[in-house]
Amino acid sequence: MTNGVSLFGDGNPLANSDLFKALQDVNDTLIGGSFGTTRRISLKGMKFREIVNGEQVSVSKSDTMNIIIIGAAPVARTYYAGAYDPDVAAPPTCWSADTQRPSSDVAEPQAPHCGDCPQNVKGSGQGNSRACRYSQRLAVVIEGDMEKVYQLQIAATSIFGDSKEGAMPMQGYARFLKAHNTPAIAVVTEMRFDDDAEVPKLFFRPIRPLNEVELDEAVALRDHEDTKHAITFTVSQTDGVQAIKVLEEAPKPAAKKPAKAKPAKEETEVVEEPTKVVKKSTPAPVDDDSDLSSLVDEWDDNDEDA
Predict the structure, then answer these.
(1) What is the rounded distance in angstroms from the CA atom of residue 125 to the CA atom of residue 272?
(2) Fewer CB within 10 Å of terminal CB in the chain, N or C?
(3) CA-CA distance, 292 to 17, in Å (whole number)?
(4) Is residue 2 part of a domain?
(5) Does some domain include residue 4?
(6) Could you give the CA distance from residue 11 to residue 32 in angstroms, rounded to a whole number?
């Protein structure tokens, strides 16, 4: 009969082998990621807030935070009907994981296609805005702590728009990095709040390249269960809403009218729908990026020192 001494610890000659360590991912999956812990970075009140299992555990005093972007989901859309009630945590009325059509488990789709939706018309939201809003989920780790993967959800104002003082919205930042043949996962990215915005709006810029050890750790996290969970599209936009995974192949549930509520203001900021442009062979220069270009060029010159 096998006893605990021979099965575990030093009694098992394979316990400290690379093979055993590599196979631990099965245990992680069975446990549910990092022992069932879910982490995200909230932008409420223009403060970086660490949320663990739905509870706020810390608030940063700085208006900047250095992160490494491990993964990203496509841009999505969500629509909330009715007035916002801070005491009611409810899923959106309609949503799309690909910005093209409502997801299959939407009980009340507003239109067959997002482009034809009345909620995608100027004036359907507050003022001259559209009621259906863009957002994007990122999986990130904080510089200096590669053990914890966080979900970061950014709104349209942080995704699209113009650069400011050498920093860029996410799509502009991604184009800048690509133009310099630098993957986002290979650099430390500074994100900071736009002080002139009335709602949480972020700008991004590169700080430094990862060293060899950091890069190995970042790459190892790309397929981690916590990373997959962070970027999986769900309709949970506020704490207390049960996450509902969007699976296009899943059967459509019976219609159930959700509570009418909108997410808080800090997570519903809107900009005009981006205009699709034809990609050029040479990316257009980004405003105020001369210093950033020099920085990336310096990285290229010092690759052997990294």
Answers:
(1) 12
(2) N
(3) 43
(4) no
(5) no
(6) 28
- Residue 45, classed as helix, strand or coil, is helix
Q: Count up the domains in the chain and report the number.
A: 1
The residue whose two tokens read 């900009």 is 271
Residue carrying structure tokens 């442009």: 277
Which residue carries 């999505």 as its tokens?
76
Containing structural domain, residue 254: 15-301
**Ramachandran class of 71: left when φ > 0, alpha when ψ lies in -120 to 50, beta otherwise:** beta
What percentage of the chain has pLDDT greater than the value 90?
Answer: 50
Q: Residue 119 and residue 229: Cα distance in Å, rounded?
A: 29
C-beta separation of 211 from 173 below 8 A:
no
In-domain check, residue 7: no
Instruction: Give the pLDDT confidence of 277-288 residue by residue, as tens digits.
Output: 444 444 444 444
Domain annotation covers residue 157: yes
Exposed (0-12), middle (13-18) or buried (19+): which is 13, by Cβ within 10 Å?
exposed
